[in-house]
Amino acid sequence: MERDKVIFDLIDQELGRQRDGIELIASENFTSLQVMEAMGTSLTNKYAEGYPGKRYYGGCEIVDQVEQLAIDRLRQVFNCTYANVQPHSGAQANGAVFLAVMKPGEKFLGLDLSMGGHLTHGSAANFSGKTYQALHYGVTKDGIVDYEQLETIARAENPKMIICGASAYSRDWDYARIRAVADEIGAIVFADIAHPAGLIAAGLLKDPFDHCHIVTSTTHKTLRGPRGGIIMLRHDFENPWGLKDPKGNTRMMSSLLDLAVFPGTQGGPLEHVIAAKAIAFGEILSADFKAYGQQIIANAQAMAKAFVAKDYQIISGGTDNHLMLIDLRNKNITGKKAQETLDKAHITLNKNAVPYDDKSPFVTSGIRIGVPSITTRGMKEEHMQTVVDLIDKILMNIDDEAIIAGVKEEVKTFMKQFPLYPELN
Ligand code: DSN
């Protein structure tokens, strides 16, 4: 077979794009080379429906070891007793939780997408909003989760499940407060920690596991692994609603979750990705990861301060984690225009609705900025001022093509200090 030059050329171009640009998409990161290597291996050829030691196919003796290592390492990362490493994505992990816990039409409560929540927490366009009755809490005018509203809705509506977690929220969570109201009404608490998982693993944010019955995450954001999802329980428990498996047996939550991933929502696991997850979890268990997490928070806070000094409006006034949401209305620029123009200068981020936004989700009034990727590339607090200066130069000259082209060159030169995959030509 001839090498597919067309595709490999595009892959080379993408590597160049990643190297030359300032990557500020809060949900992205750069994996280690060994994490990427594992995904391009013979493990991609193997079918392994089932779980280690209980497969529906022969020849699984090697992938069983790979998957068991991934499970064991993940348990160690979050000090939990149960882990499922098979979900292909965070959305798949969340879908499995819904399948395990909820019957169609039942109520749950999650953070509104327009206030920083996630599609799978009840958006009308998503399976979660179509299959179940989604109720939402929001954030206050100050941009902090409105716990009072959450409690009021929970007490009035008795949802079966309360979800905490967000895609565009820069503050830590009061998991204990959510658990307290959930216990009053007999609801399960499910935390989706996809965004801050790496900071939680590093012990730098509150630990959700003591208060939330079920926890899911993606593996490719602050955890710096391959694209994928995971589900975890610190302690297994009997399912409180007497839910039955398809054979009519009542099962422990761990067993219901395993069944909900396979055969409930997925077929064969991606063992090449699971191998990469195992490598990433091994990296998280190393001494360096805590320092990485600390640097992320230091960078995010330095960046927020530099934006505030230039009169940018940060939602909630700052950040506890790896990201910030900026309301651009005082600058008279939409999120869409900002994203598109910054893209021309190889500064990559996403437009984002801000709480109480008056613009459509396609336009938005804000941008979301995250620092995990630039922290992986080696940036420190002192580099945040340069990044903010470059963004500000574009936003203050949004229709000036010459200035935009100049910033693109400045970005390229600046990023040469922070090599990315030097082993790859
Ligand atoms: N799309 C992800 C994000 O950007 O936050 C969440 O799934």
Walk me through what this model shows.
This protein is an alpha/beta fold and 425 residues long. The protein has two domains: 34-284, Aspartate Aminotransferase, domain 2, CATH 3.40.640.10; 289-415, Alpha-Beta Complex (Aspartate Aminotransferase, domain 1). 42% of the residues lie in helices and 13% in strands. It binds D-serine. D-serine (DSN) binds next to loops.
Could you state the oligomeric state of the chains shown? single chain
Provide the CATH superfamily of the largest domain: Type I PLP-dependent aspartate aminotransferase-like (Major domain)
Bound molecules: D-serine
Q: Could you give a short account of the major beta sheet?
A: 7 strands, mixed
How many domains is the backbone divided into?
2
Largest beta sheet: what is the strand line-up? Answer: 4-10-9-8-7-5-6
Structural class assignment: alpha/beta
Summarize the structure.
The chain has two domains: 251 residues, Type I PLP-dependent aspartate aminotransferase-like (Major domain) (Aspartate Aminotransferase, domain 2), CATH 3.40.640.10; 127 residues, Alpha-Beta Complex (Aspartate Aminotransferase, domain 1), CATH 3.90.1150.10.
